């Protein structure tokens, strides 16, 4: 598995033709089967692209919860939701500086988000969404099912009884003669 990640990192970092990079890794003895690695990398990239598209559509369509952590746990079949946070014991001074800046700006950002949500809640109209109803769509109370005389697609509908075939032996002989006459020509 480590070889797979080495190959993917080399391909991503160096760019160029991925096949030549994988073949070079195979000649060095790092990679045994570069075709298998190519298939794995295509699958991994496809899954990551799908997750990114899902989160992007949630954000753009304002539908569902946009997750700050993008992942999938296939063993438990769920999408974990957690927030990735920086390490407070980071050894990088610039990292610690950005963390302090974030902590100072966070309350103002949270207040702005809360104010925006409250403003949107006040702007929601309570009347009908559309004044004109061009397709005659209506909302009906479904507590009591409406009785109709229409047939249901769930019910088995019997085909009409077919009339019994009444072919006589004479009719078959006549048809046979007609067929022989056609074949004779």
Describe this structure as you would to a colleague.
With 185 residues, the chain is mostly helical. Among the domains are: 1-84, no CATH class; 87-123. The chain is built from five helices and no strands. α1 crosses α2. The chain starts with a helix and ends with a helix. Mean pLDDT is 75; it is low at 1-14.
Secondary structure topology:
Blueprint: H1 2-14, H2 18-28, H3 34-61, H4 93-123, H5 169-184
Helix pairs in contact: 1-2
Average pLDDT score: 75
- Alpha carbon gap, first and last residue: 78 Å
Provide the succession of SSEs.
Answer: HHHHH
Rg, rounded, reads: 35 Å
Low-confidence stretches: 1-14
Number of helices: 5
- What class do helices, strands and sheet pairing give? mainly alpha
Region (Disordered): 139-171
Transmembrane segments: 40-61
InterPro entries: Ubiquitin-activating_enz (IPR035985)
GO molecular function, one term: ubiquitin-like modifier activating enzyme activity
Give short descriptive properties of this protein.
about 180 residues; flat; disordered N terminus
Can I get a quick summary?
Keywords: Membrane, Transmembrane, Transmembrane helix. The chain is an all-alpha fold and 185 residues long.
């Amino acid at each position: 598995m480590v070889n797979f990640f080495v190959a993917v990192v080399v391909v991503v970092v160096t760019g160029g033709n991925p096949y030549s990079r994988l073949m070079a890794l195979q000649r060095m003895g790092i990679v045994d089967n570069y075709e298998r690695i190519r298939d794995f990398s295509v699958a991994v990239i496809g899954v990551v692209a799908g997750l990114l598209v899902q989160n992007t559509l949630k954000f753009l369509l304002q539908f569902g919860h946009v997750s700050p952590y993008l992942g999938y746990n296939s063993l438990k079949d769920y999408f974990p939701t957690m927030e990735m946070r920086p390490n407070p014991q980071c050894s990088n001074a610039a990292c610690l500086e950005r963390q302090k800046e974030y902590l100072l700006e966070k309350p103002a950002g949270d207040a702005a988000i809360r104010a925006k949500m409250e403003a949107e809640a006040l702007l929601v109209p309570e009347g009908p969404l559309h004044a004109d109803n061009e397709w005659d769509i209506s909302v009906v109370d479904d507590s009591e099912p409406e009785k109709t005389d229409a047939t249901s697609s769930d019910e088995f509908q019997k085909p009409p009884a077919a009339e019994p075939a009444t072919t006589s032996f004479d009719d078959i002989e006549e048809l046979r003669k007609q067929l022989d006459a056609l074949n004779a020509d």
